Amino acid sequence: MIKVGIVGGTGYTGVELLRLLARHPNVAVEAITSRSEAGMAVSELYPNLRGHYDDLAFSEPDADRLARCDAVFFATPHGVAHALAGELLDKGTRVIDLSADFRLRDTEEWAHWYGQPHGAPQLLDDAIYGLPEVNREQIRQARLIAVPGCYPTAVQLGLLPLLEAGVIDADRIIADCKSGVTGAGRGAKVPSLLAEASESMKAYGASGHRHLPEIRQGLADAAKGPVGLTFVPHLTPMIRGIHATLYGRLTTDPGDLQALFERRFASEPFVDVMPAGSHPETRSVKGANLCRLAVHRPGDGDTVVVLSVIDNLVKGASGQAVHNLNLMFDLDELAGLDAPAIMP
Amino acid sequence: MIKVGIVGGTGYTGVELLRLLARHPNVAVEAITSRSEAGMAVSELYPNLRGHYDDLAFSEPDADRLARCDAVFFATPHGVAHALAGELLDKGTRVIDLSADFRLRDTEEWAHWYGQPHGAPQLLDDAIYGLPEVNREQIRQARLIAVPGCYPTAVQLGLLPLLEAGVIDADRIIADCKSGVTGAGRGAKVPSLLAEASESMKAYGASGHRHLPEIRQGLADAAKGPVGLTFVPHLTPMIRGIHATLYGRLTTDPGDLQALFERRFASEPFVDVMPAGSHPETRSVKGANLCRLAVHRPGDGDTVVVLSVIDNLVKGASGQAVHNLNLMFDLDELAGLDAPAIMP
Amino acid sequence: MIKVGIVGGTGYTGVELLRLLARHPNVAVEAITSRSEAGMAVSELYPNLRGHYDDLAFSEPDADRLARCDAVFFATPHGVAHALAGELLDKGTRVIDLSADFRLRDTEEWAHWYGQPHGAPQLLDDAIYGLPEVNREQIRQARLIAVPGCYPTAVQLGLLPLLEAGVIDADRIIADCKSGVTGAGRGAKVPSLLAEASESMKAYGASGHRHLPEIRQGLADAAKGPVGLTFVPHLTPMIRGIHATLYGRLTTDPGDLQALFERRFASEPFVDVMPAGSHPETRSVKGANLCRLAVHRPGDGDTVVVLSVIDNLVKGASGQAVHNLNLMFDLDELAGLDAPAIMP
Amino acid sequence: MIKVGIVGGTGYTGVELLRLLARHPNVAVEAITSRSEAGMAVSELYPNLRGHYDDLAFSEPDADRLARCDAVFFATPHGVAHALAGELLDKGTRVIDLSADFRLRDTEEWAHWYGQPHGAPQLLDDAIYGLPEVNREQIRQARLIAVPGCYPTAVQLGLLPLLEAGVIDADRIIADCKSGVTGAGRGAKVPSLLAEASESMKAYGASGHRHLPEIRQGLADAAKGPVGLTFVPHLTPMIRGIHATLYGRLTTDPGDLQALFERRFASEPFVDVMPAGSHPETRSVKGANLCRLAVHRPGDGDTVVVLSVIDNLVKGASGQAVHNLNLMFDLDELAGLDAPAIMP
């Protein structure tokens, strides 16, 4: 069994890791840390886990204990992995970071968006961006993974085929994204209350959002050059799910767009290109490590519309983290990730 | 008192007319028709109306009875107003049609989208498109009003200032719209069930939607020339509300966009330009005849983003219909429409 | 115009008072206080009010300024009205307290449930329990009103006819109540997050809840003797609404239960006894100052089941407070409270 | 592998069977029937299953084909299993019926509640009521299982310890139950629309519901005598989940209620007695085959309150059906049923 630890396990990505790992045939959770809840049984905070992990309680973060794990997940706010990852790596423990700490290669950009200096620039050379559909081979060899953000996963997967094929204007991409409220985390904030967020829809961060530079970096890699991206996220009255609606302008005859997408993801176990004309629903991936895509070309004009849905907590966070783990430890890619989505 | 009738009152726009008119100081509802529910008391179908309209029951449509009204609202599926409006107009009753029957000036386009020939082309010259922010003076004189659709209202109001000022590329407009489920009406359809539509988000009609030609027609009027529009509607898990996120490419220095919007709607009682940097929420207009707008220019680049929210049943349907009535009968524009939105 | 002030206006009962008073023909809001938001425009916190109260901002609580009002509403946590009401009453300003401060006649019981001594026992003789269906005449003369709690309103109205008629065993009453999340207020608490509270149902306070003694006191008055009550509240995934399901054991032939209820509330403008066999929905009173009731006797046995629904923010709080104001100032009882519920 | 068929697979219990069986190590789904959708791929109707069952399509019901299965699930409206079960049993195929066809032992009562004569009285002697916590040994030997209804499962599990111990008055039991909308099935009915059922709460069937006789029968078995039960179901604005709040009057000193419950279910893998003072949430069992219980005795009085939650589609239907299958074929009871609930 591969021994893993989880740092910062009280948030939604933490409990989702536990849910997925409960059924993973090759993984044992050895430690889960939380400063605020140290001493509390995991199943007390998350009663859905009663009957699983009955001996597991949150503990104070302890680098020595964590270093006895084969791998450690960080499900923490930004900055924490900066401080702790180096020590673990030095002791031979691999790190899978679900936070934003190692996603941006440009430390100045990181400092700009997160309002503090980058805390571990010396580790950036080791950090692999954990999007398996792009970096599978590097992930297999990696010791430090930056798991992509939720919006960046949905947007990149939807645009990769078009940018790699060079058929859209990379300078004028629009990503209109809708997220469930778990994207805002488990913090007690008034705008996240059911009384405030349900029965309503709103945009936020229309003038700039922290996921923008991450998406831009990934798209630029695919386009082999800078991209112009307008990204507007919206808060949607549901618990889980991201729906990205992506707009690009065709600059050349793309041929059969459906075939382009199907070819690109033909061997990807966690990307589902739906039949032509489909409109994927976020609920069709609820709880599952999947991105479902559909590509449209309204009126056979020069605008291509891609619809991309994921569960923000699974393919957008914890499931993708487990996928990375499976690759790093040469396990079946589907291990722990083979359950169908729950619907209705 | 102005005597009004409602044809097809069992749907959501019908009950919403009754809710608004219950407090209108100058209007009396004389008749409400429904073939399916003839004989049933209005308050039996809509218990929120118990204590109001206690003597009002649905009746079979009867042109003579309706013609005794000063005005008749059609809250019907398309085709019904085609068949009945002419007779009422001939008898001197004014018609306010909430359906799509008289919205498109091009009868062939109408026939294309609605799958049947236009039933009353001879009335089109009389039909005024009931968007008061554009056609206020004509509405005052009109005898036949085509109340705009919900999406078209939200999209046009958000784009009018930009197109009238000629500052965006009219050929590349994107309208990404999110609607609550009442937009699909009160019909019993599986995709509209709570078990199917809640906790999920999906696009629909990405390759073409009936509101597209209506929006295009209105925008072309504002732009004084044809427009290129990509319109993607989405079903959102909430009862009421439309959030339109509108993207345009600036082709010239627009100056102060905030001022442009504020000027355009300075004297409009039902359009609220929010302060710069705002993100309007659909719940801030729930139950109210209002469009709230915010304009953004991310990164001071050449893309302008407009956020436009309405209650699809009020400013997107029944409230706008009452506003038209107020104008046609020279009443206070706010009569019956002065209640604040309900929040939370 | 009657000049009113609101103390503690940032919570949900505060904004609901503003929403209702915006359309009240005889009332002007002169002041609204909030320590935390002093200086902020009301419409900044509550954008649904933009266009109403545009000159009104939250101010620091100031007894002199409040005392210039004819009446002051307290929409505050418990304890605040204790501290401030006396001074206002001394200066001739009438007080309508929406908190629990003056609801219980027994100060020891108050201290037990609220964990602090009662702060103004000397005012209790003046305090009238503001349930108009019971105390209408006293309310007319009152200078200090204790507006009933939300659960107590729904439960008492549903049980009054049975207890007053003496037809059920007062010793074995069960009130199973379901409330929307606004009942928990606008505080930022994890269990009230959409991500936690939606798609779920749970009981709380099954072993004891602060509304229990208030309900017991009111029922005892009706029964003219002590009552035995089991009260279990539940958190329901909706914004507004309380559904009380009340169970009593018939101890005598009650005759026609439907007639008993209809007679009891025949002249009550805000209680609607629905037809026999009905099942009132909370949405049928959303936004309206109404309690809708239905009475059932399953299998003609000896158990009577009463279904009672209110909007917890209206008939369960702010609407009832306005009703009290109308009575105290000899206004039309329906002033400001005549709008139908919003549905769907 | 055990070969199974599913009759009537288009409803919610059908898709839930497929979801659970997708991960069952010992079961292969050989056939799934639907008259209305014959020919359609399963994953077309239920896109969450894309990637699973890719060769499985709905077929016309065909007794010969179904009889080649080891077991057949009926996920059909009442009456269907009456017509078809006998033939399958004769051919040696075991039947697990999720409908109400074989739940009531009294055929006249069945006819009364379902409005038609019982169609297969000769099979009743073979039918075992599939509540493993009561009938585990008989289920192991059974060839025909009547899977309990959702409400009956939640109510019986919560009351069994009390009735078996004889500590409550069996004549005055109250079951106040709250169900998510999937309890009403996938039929397109107006009251089940999101626009109608969300943001609202209502009781239904207060004067009588089809699950009443089933619950009464099960409770009477536990009490070894007739019981008096008042059962009021409520429609709750959520997709999945039942919350049963159960009230009984203690007739004798019950001793330690918590211990009583823990003892009763000590060896039950799918019943979780939560710690004293708990309030189980329906979301803590979402997607999982679990009943979580908590027992309260408010004010140490003579009323006992039991809180019982299940996922109506899992422990209340398809999961319990799989549990029965596991028992009948001597498999691990947890096979296919070991995944934690999904939360948030």
TrEMBL record, chains A, B, C, D:
Primary site of residence: cytoplasm
NADP listed as a keyword: yes
Pathway assignment: Amino-acid biosynthesis; L-arginine biosynthesis; N(2)-acetyl-L-ornithine from L-glutamate: step 3/4
Coiled-coil ranges per UniProt: none
GO terms, molecular function: N-acetyl-gamma-glutamyl-phosphate reductase activity; NAD binding; NADP+ binding
Localization, UniProt: Cytoplasm
Ranges where the Semialdehyde dehydrogenase NAD-binding domain occurs: 3-142
PROSITE patterns the UniProt entry points to: ARGC
Gene3D superfamilies according to UniProt: Dihydrodipicolinate Reductase, domain 2, NAD(P)-binding Rossmann-like Domain
SUPFAM superfamilies membership: Glyceraldehyde-3-phosphate dehydrogenase-like, C-terminal domain (SSF55347), NAD(P)-binding Rossmann-fold domains (SSF51735)
UniProt xrefs under InterPro entries: AGPR, AGPR_AS, AGPR_dimerisation_dom, AGPR_type-1, NAD(P)-bd_dom_sf, Semialdehyde_DH_NAD-bd
Superkingdom to which the source organism belongs: Bacteria
GO CC terms: cytoplasm
Its EC number(s): 1.2.1.38
Alphabetical keyword list: Amino-acid biosynthesis, Arginine biosynthesis, Cytoplasm, NADP, Oxidoreductase
Active site (catalytic residues): 150
Any one GO BP annotation for this protein: L-arginine biosynthetic process
UniProt KW NADP keyword: yes
Reaction equation(s) it catalyzes: N-acetyl-L-glutamate 5-semialdehyde + phosphate + NADP(+) = N-acetyl-L-glutamyl 5-phosphate + NADPH + H(+)
Role: Catalyzes the NADPH-dependent reduction of N-acetyl-5-glutamyl phosphate to yield N-acetyl-L-glutamate 5-semialdehyde.
PANTHER family, sorted: N-ACETYL-GAMMA-GLUTAMYL-PHOSPHATE REDUCTASE, CHLOROPLASTIC-RELATED, N-ACETYL-GAMMA-GLUTAMYL-PHOSPHATE REDUCTASE, CHLOROPLASTIC-RELATED-RELATED
Family: Belongs to the NAGSA dehydrogenase family. Type 1 subfamily.
Protein's UniProt name: N-acetyl-gamma-glutamyl-phosphate reductase
Source organism per UniProt: Halomonas fontilapidosi
